């Protein structure tokens, strides 16, 4: 019987080869597939194209892959504070395609929903529109943007079951469900892996049909990028 | 002249009961502190949350619950979580009533530049291009002049654009201005102690002054 | 303070006037907004354009509106067994636009996601393609289909809260969430209305931003169209 | 000759371990009864369910849980529920491995007609056009000839089309046939007791017969 459950990150990423195009879920450091990123660093796979909203920080998340110069090209909406990223970009080692965040999300959705292209007004009249088809609907201009074509999508969920169904927790959901739908092969790491039947079918965010490999991750650090708090006193 | 807090406080007066509002980073974030009592406003955070609450109490931070500025936050009764595609879907479909964001430059026809300075490290536009291209109602919160003393309200933006013909209203430390459909910055209010002449000097784009211009009130 | 909660179906549909375009959730008789349909029948509003996957049966659901000749045009994928529907169609009283079910769903999604048009291969080479723009992506032809433009979307959910958030139960979800996103004004009737804060934010299917009016419906019949069972014995 | 049940049984042999399968109404529905032991197959119902289970026991029917044929059904461990847009999204994205449906006519280039008969009441295409336009692997289950004795395997469909160049395989009471990429029905197997000549007579489109044609086995 086909079994989607793999032993861990190493097995899950076993066939990710140099030059692959990867989607990586997460927003900032929230909801990133920590186990798979660490395994990719260990595996030393190179020349990757990474589609991810952000690029991690210097010593965590995708930043670790940048440190090892594993990434040829980043497709992101915001690359934040990352000194190594900046160095590689300025030296020409790293190619960067900055695209609007909604365009990024919707190009994932398009892939997952079998729509070859979508229309968005984001970027009309800006350098993002250069070379793109512009089309007017009801008096408003839209850019035609193409569905992503990624070899692998790597996502992090809160809970998953052996059928590949995923549930996300709070804002760590972000890009994970849309990327899960968009990979030719989708790898999900979860904080808790349960038997099929333990998750309520009504509460599943990503149906198992979209998930090819799943495993329970370990040692999640879940680093916080901007720890903001208020005092316990009122106000 | 107004402080950043006072700019935020003035903008908060534009928020109506029942509004769904997206607040950008910087001064716009401060607007949340001045939402009038008795009205119900829901804050959208484009990483996938409606109903953004205040920062958590110390020790209650949740790494899985952040806003678009990557700050730890909380939810409120009635909050909902969704993925990034739905988040920008509701933005594009103009379900968000008001977007408040900062800018480096605004032109007199409503263009905005706020994401890139040639020659400097580019961090990316994040969700800003989606927001300005889609929102039906955008207010810019910014300083009237930059650190070099140059006006940020221009005939034409000099920096790479974020969006075109999209800004409706601007609130600065000096004034409240509407961007006219036919072009031009229409002066609506001036900050206490700021003269029309000073606003005129600080505005490189076409300033339209008609009738009496009152001082802003923040009561 | 703005209050989305209305007293019932009559108040919810108060401003639906003759000639309006309505979306009505449900698949067959499953998940249809029974209370609102009954109120529309009582209100005798006419000349409606109804976007709904099906048209009910003779004596239930949208069939009741057909009996009262309130519908000028149906936009559906399958109109099933409905004698009055057939009579009105053949007599020319009723206009019918039959479109593929996925196209119907995706045109709703497009409206809710602010995408003016989408591409789908459904109907290429058939009469559905007549007059439509065909576009080739990666060697495959797609039709360009436009987002729906509906005055009202009327949906039925299982639970809802005073902020307008909705949760659906089992396959009564169907078209309801996508239509909820697509109406200029969206009306939700729910089996159980609770206070904001009682629904888990992670389990909300339709965020309240899409819902303008909500009420707790009553006397749900939830009729079954095809009651199929197996014997309690094995096999 | 094969019964409807036997057609379904033969088609079931095409289903592989791990497949996600969409079954149309009629003979295709029967296929669920013959899925080989020891393989894991997930049935998709396009109204928004993965993991369709058998009919409920009497008294356990749930009006909120139906399949695309509007029949009361059950879920299974691992089932998931989703909306209609996601359902057809996964169909368009070819996440469904196999689609099995009925037909009125199939042409030798793989066109299918199964939704409309001119002059008769039209009920609509439901999800059929989406399924045939998107699926990477479609098997048609149907009778070889219609009630009037006319072949349903034609050089060209006479009825309004549901989809073009999409059918890969056909299983009838007489035979199993592939639709060749270059056009033509390639005879793969014949039903027990059915001669190649009879299949030839029953096939109006171009029939390709090469090598030995075995009788279908259902063990």
Helix-strand layout with pairing:
The complex is a heterotetramer, with 2 copies of chain A (235 residues) and 2 copies of chain B (219 residues).
Chain A: H1 9-12, E1 21-24, H2 34-43, E2 48-51, H3 62-67, E3 71-76, H4 83-91, E4 95-98, H5 101-112, E5 117-120, E6 134-137, E7 140-146, E8 150-161, E9 166-167, H6 176-182, E10 183-194, E11 213-216
Parallel strand pairs in A: 1-2, 1-8, 2-3, 3-4, 8-10, 10-11
Antiparallel strand pairs in A: 5-7, 6-7, 8-9
Helix pairs in contact in A: 5-6
Chain B: H1 4-12, E1 20-23, H2 27-31, E2 42-45, E3 49-52, E4 75-81, H3 84-92, E5 98-101, E6 105-107, E7 112-113, H4 128-134, E8 138-141, E9 153-154, E10 169-171, E11 175-179, E12 185-190, H5 196-202, E13 207-208, E14 214-215
Parallel strand pairs in B: 1-2, 1-5, 5-8, 6-9, 8-10, 12-13, 12-14
Antiparallel strand pairs in B: 2-3, 3-4, 6-7, 10-11, 11-12
What does the overall shape of chain A look like? globular
Q: What's the helix-strand series of chain A?
A: HEHEHEHEHEEEEEHEE
CATH domain class name of chain B:
Alpha Beta
- What CATH architecture of chain B do you see? 3-Layer(aba) Sandwich
The domain count of chain B comes to 1
CATH topology of chain A: Glutaconate Coenzyme A-transferase
Architecture per CATH nomenclature, i.e. the level-2 architecture of chain A: 3-Layer(aba) Sandwich
Query: What is the mean pLDDT of chain A?
Result: 96
Overall SS class of chain B: alpha/beta
Helix tally of chain A equals: 6
Specify the overall morphology of chain B. Answer: globular
Backbone CA Rg of chain B: 17 Å
Helix content of chain B: 10-25%
Classification by helices and strands of chain A = alpha/beta
Span between N and C termini of chain B?
A: 16 Å
State the end-to-end CA separation of chain A: 58 Å
